[in-house]
Amino acid sequence: VQLVESGGGLVQPGGSLRLSCAASGFTFSNYRMSWYRQAPGKEREWVARITRGGGITDYADSVKGRFTISRDNAKNTVYLQMNSLKLEDTGVYYCNADGLGSWGQGTQVTVSS
Questions:
Q1: What distance in Å separates the CA atoms of residue 86 and residue 27, rounded to the nearest whole number?
Q2: Which end of the chain is more exposed for a tag (fewer CB within 10 A), N or C?
Q3: Is 74 left (phi over 0), alpha (psi -120 to 50) or beta?
Q4: Which of 104, 62, 105 is nearest to 82 (CA)?
Q5: Torsion, CA 87, CA 106, CA 20, CA 83, rounded to 10
Q6: What is the pLDDT of residues 22-78, one digit of tens each?
Q7: Positive or negative: CA dihedral 58, 2, 79, 10
């Protein structure tokens, strides 16, 4: 199982970023996928989830209405579109296949003026 996150960076408050997670080593379309994040000094927290076919999504209250999770099963990739970013969105973002124990290296998102 391999998960490779990308797309992070430094952005000003109110800005946008699109994260990608390329998956390999398992049958991607068979798994619900999630994004998590870990802020400095805090526990890793769940951010968003998408079902195997992409028809149902769910979000943490803190990002609802600002973030959108999507997936492309043909490309074995899950995305996280992040809009209206806030300072508190800063952290390392990880994707995860629900039920599998593997984590990628994450991608750093820094929201700062």
A1: 34
A2: C
A3: alpha
A4: 62
A5: -10
A6: 999 999 999 999 999 999 999 999 999 999 999 999 999 999 999 999 999 999 999
A7: positive
Mean pLDDT along residues 78-106: 96
First CA to last CA distance, the chain: 37
Side-chain-facing half-sphere of 25: CA atoms under 13 Å: 13
- Burial letters for 15-31: b for 16+ Cβ neighbours within 10 Å, e otherwise? eebebbbbbeebebeeb
Tell me, what's the pLDDT at 101? 85
Q: Which amino acid is at 12?
A: Q
Read off the tokens for 23.
């998956």
Which token pair is 87?
A: 């300072």
CA 70 to chain centroid: 10
